[in-house]
Design a protein that fits this description.
The protein is 89% helix and 0% strand. By secondary structure, the chain is an all-alpha fold. The protein has one domain (2-52). The two termini are 15 Å apart. The model has no long low-confidence stretch (mean pLDDT 95). The chain crosses the membrane at residues 28-49. Keywords: Membrane, Transmembrane, Transmembrane helix. InterPro entries: DUF2759.
Length: 55
Amino acid sequence: MVLGIIFLLVALLAIVSVIRQIRIKNLFALAFSALAVLVFGFFSVATIITELGII
């Protein structure tokens, strides 16, 4: 469960980075930030769902 929360925090920080990169218009960093949001967001949600026993 702790791992899922850590992944969720990283995903939230990556969302902040996506917003900043859109404002700066840095497309290369935007791509990496968006990829980090997708990967860490997926793994955080999957880990939390698995730990809670929903699936």
